[in-house]
Design a protein that fits this description.
With 1138 residues, this protein is α+β, with helices and mostly antiparallel strands. It contains 37 helices and 25 strands. The strands form six sheets. A five-stranded antiparallel sheet has the order 1-7-3-5-4, with helices on both faces. A five-stranded antiparallel sheet has the order 9-10-8-12-11, sandwiched between helices. 26% of the residues are buried. Keywords: Membrane, Mitochondrion, Mitochondrion inner membrane, Transmembrane, Transmembrane helix.
Length: 1138
Amino acid sequence: MLATIRADPTPKAPRGVSLARSRHPRAYQLAQRYDVGPETLEIGTASGVIQVAPVDFSFFFLYITTSSLRQNVSAMIPRGRGSLSLMRRQPLMGSASFLLRPQFPAASLVRPTVATGSPLRLVAPSIRFYADDAQPPPKDEDAAKKEDSEAAKQEKPEEKKVEEEELDASDPEAVEAARQHASFYISNVLPIKLSGFDIRPKLAEIREQTIMEQLNQIVGGLKGRHAFRLESYEIARKDGGVFFHFTYLKPKLTQLPRKHQGWTHEHAPEDEAPEPTSPAALFLPPLLESAQKHGGWPSWLGKWWSNFTDRHNTPKTESGHEYYRGGAVPVREPELRGWQRDAGAGRAWVVKGRQWTEDLSRYPSSQLKVEFAGPDVGQEVLYSLFRPYGRIIEIVPPSPVPAGALRYSILKFSRISTAVAASNCLHSYSTPTSQIDYDLVKKQPDQDVTRSTLKICYEQPLKGHYFRDWVRDHPKIAIPILAFLLGGLSYSFFDPIRSFFVRNDIEGTWDLEKYQTVKFVRDNIWLPVYNTLTGQRNRPQRKRNVDDLGRASWQDRMEAEANIEKWIREFPSTFIVVTGPPGSGKHELVHRMIEGSHRPSLEIDCAEVAKAKTDGDLVKNLAAQTSYWPVFSFLQSMNGLIDLAAQGLIGQKAGFSTPIDEQLRNMLDVVTTALKGVTQDEQEDRLEAARHAEREKKTHFMHEAARESINNGTYHDGRLDCIAGNGVMSELGFGQEPMTSKDARAPKPKEESTEHLVARAQAALADKPPPAEQSEDTADEAPVLDTNAETISTLPIVVLRNFSAKPARGDLWKVLAEWGAGLLDNKIAHVIVVGEGSLTTKTLTHALPSKPLNHVTLSDADTYNSLEFVREKLSSSEKDKDGNPKQYVLSEKEKDAIAKLGGRMVDLELLVYKVRGGQSITQAVADIVLRNEVELRKQAFGDDSEDAASLPWSRAQAWKLVTELARAPELSYEKLLQYYPFKGGDMALKAMEERDIVTIVYRDGRAYAVRPGKPVFREAFRQLEADSTFAAASQIAYNNSVISAAEAAIKGYEEELNKLKALIGEGDGLKLSDKSRGWLTSWWGESSPINQRAKYLLEQMDASMKKIAAANADNACQLEKFNPPTEGQGKCRTRLAS
């Protein structure tokens, strides 16, 4: 790559700085700072060719990026025409800086290779030239030598001075280019955010505007000093400080006061003088003076807090000790001293590096991690850099790090605020690495020394993560202990809370509907106002009651209520199972029985629990049904991850992850504990009520005895003895003899003594039973408590609604059944299970195999009640002219149509809705039957052959049930299993029952009949059979299955007959047959077992052949139904027998 040296024929000074003459260190510093610009001269490296423009310079700076180039550069300089001196070597960067001082115009520096006026060529690998002072060359050699001698004198350290040209104030661009940028950091203006939960920064935002106005007034005191101009403020919210950036014009040294031209440090080695023209020397003292003039630095808690913290945060000593002069007098200077002059003091600090604005979750701490982008920095240098900001407790030296990572040291401060200030001021600061270089740079800032850039971040104290690190380093010990602690916390803290909420839900402590005051307000105030405002249409709909099924009560429901009431008055021993089709009123029946018993109850809707798609949702749903709170369902996934990590670390699971079945059992154990507590509370309430009644009875008896004594004149008030005395001579006293019936005023019609009343009163006072001999006439009044009845009446009732209604995750039904069985075995509660199908009883039987179930089955309504229900509903919807409900009269045709629907409540309500919508009863019934017909065809036969193959039954079995149930209301269960296609198994029938295609009726614990799944299905079966096309296709499929079964049977018969034939042939030596006749005819009609078996096989083969013939004939007849009807085409008379 070729690059042209860019320089103007009339060169300019870098960035507006005008220098008449300059020594090389200063020139190098400026060249290094202003590396980019028109005065920067670039030379490429690819071709090794440099193009030099014919420009005159006094000397150049060469920055060579390739080692061992000094000889090559020296070879390019003509002898006696220039000198090359090493300025700085950077071994890590593989580069070096040289000073090239020509003794003639720069255009003659290199040997020309082309004609004059063309670019000159110089061979070099990679060189960068820096134009320095842009001074025209001298007119003669004498003047040049004179200037060189003066420059040589200026190179001596003791005569080091810088003379600058005057700045042209009329040139705004030159003034702006000459401005220097600097920043100050004001600490503790806002609160330091210590964690993500710290809300103090949010509270401080309320006073943020006021604080910034106060800070602006303080900074305004710097205006007018060295063209000071405030550029911007930058709030470090996480660190609680404020940066203010400003620019200024750097003054000449001669323009400064004499005391700033040189600082003395005769009393302390730390009292090094900063550069007189640095921002710290120019602006720090007046900034502190301005802050003091305005009452101190602002703070989010007020200036009183600011003054308090400033007084305690100002370091009294610089390095932990005082300094004395020869006269043993402590050093007392009114101005800033030592490190404060260069770094800052109190809360105002000079930003030496470059602040890093970030919003990471790294919160301030008292420890700083200082990374070195370069060689390691010694502890003495780190101490000198960081000590001005506050006391340092410890400096941890660097330790080995992985390859490619930066080495670092840890600095521990005594306060967090000092660490924050140091981090914001020294980040990205380039510092010498050794103390010697550090001291040398203090005296000569432009010295070429090895430097390293500091990268600072916060390091959290080790004690904050000690437990975490210990757990990480000792997983085999820590994980089991942690599991034990978490389990103990759950059982000791959370489980009592959960049990408390479950008990409150069962007892209805927070149920406002149970309080009489709330009921009165609702019924007499709220509902009337609500109905008036919203109208009749928006009134809350009452729940459907079993009485809606008809005015007349159903006999089976009366029997069911009586049975359930009898069973809940006994000790719990087995499940009370209430089953019935949808709409039969089983839920309302159970609800009414529980309300009538006045006992605490817990109702769990199992269908809502089974809706869960994940294990966490299953736990959450069960917790919602039982008021189990708090529940942490999200911890299940976390526990699984912990177990997975533990298995990778220690080779086995830690036990955090629990199977879903175990979780459900743990939850139900807490519910069991709550049920026990409910029983105990109920028993205590009953006992307290009995004691209160007994006390009331005793009090009442004492009052009656006293009243009787007063009437008889034998009552004595003991309070009179305090006045009259109770001796023999007392006028009003009774004396010492007890009063008897003889002392009464008048004889009683019936002589009776009151001594037994007095004895009973005294026994009541002493809380003892009365004497037996005096309680003869009141023996019938003594309470006789039935302990068992009282205990049973306090047991709660658990209701499992919609049990086994649908498949659920895990073993939900098994867990609930086993939990209910445990409640029954321990006599904790009665358990009522409400379901629909046989799966309910099957699951409960497995959970409690040793005891029979108390089973109640509700059936659909009969024809009379169905008609009454429809008539009443339709009558209530129509009104006559007077506004009274019009009685709806059903015709015979409508009654016949309604009878097709049966007594299923769901279908009857749907019929009423359709009739109210404008359809006639006949149309509505036809529509309902059609819908059920389509549903039945899809569920029983499938949409296609692939769908039918996935069904757990065959189409032949489905068609068999359709044809049989279309003719009869029910089929014998055992008889159905004796014939094809159900012969040999009942799995198909069980599967159809689960799909609600059929219903298996149980009697005395066994299945005895098969009925349609819904009453309307019977009419749907008839419609399917009446559909000629569908019936023909189904009948052909059924016949084909019969033919296949018969052919398979014939094949088996033939194989067995061949075996019999071979057996007879082998036994010919025993003269079992006569070969003159056939092997069969010789044994036909005889009593030989082989002959009898062969005869049986032939008979069965003949029967199978007849079935095949009948099936083929029926198929031929069914095929005719697919053809268009013709005249004379008759019906299929052949019907395949069962």
